[in-house]
C-alpha cells in the first residue's frame, strides 16, 4: 500500500498544481458594456428604424459619408426623428425655411422619412457649394483664427449658419463671426469639420429634391 502511494502521490500533486496553473482568469464585465438586447442596424441597411435609435459617427475616416455622419452626430446625435427646442427637424436639424427652398413643404413627412432627409442634406450641401463656389478656391489653405480653412469646414459652417454668413466670415478674415442660439460659432465648425473629402458633392444652382 505504502509502495503504491509513493508512486501515485507525485502524480496526484503534479495534477493538482497543473490544474491551478492553467485555470483561466475570470474578468468581470461592467454592466454598461454588456449587450442585453439586439443591436439595431442603421437605416437603410436593413430598413430597421426605431424612434429611439441614436447613431454615433462610424469609423469612416475623412470620406464624405464620414463628414455627413459626424455633422449629423453633432446636430442631433444622428436621430432622424428629433425636433429641437427651436423647431429644427431631423438628423441634420433643418429649419422650415431651408426645407421650402428645396421643395419640401410637409414637415411631418420630412421628419418621418429618413431617405428624404438624406436627399435634402445632399441637396443643401450642393446648393451651399454653388453659393460659395468663388470663396472655396480663394480661401482653402489659408489660416483664419488659428484654423487652416478647408472645403469641408466651409460647407459645415454653411450648414450651421448659412452660406451668406460664411461669406462674411471668410471675407472679413474671421472678424465677422456669428453663432447659433446654442452658442456654436462658424469658427468652431470650421475647425471641427476640417479635412474631410467632399469632392463628390457637385455644386448646383437652386437645386430641389
UniProtKB/TrEMBL annotation:
SUPFAM superfamilies: Lysozyme-like. InterPro entries: Lysozyme-like_dom_sf. This is Peptidoglycan-binding protein LysM.
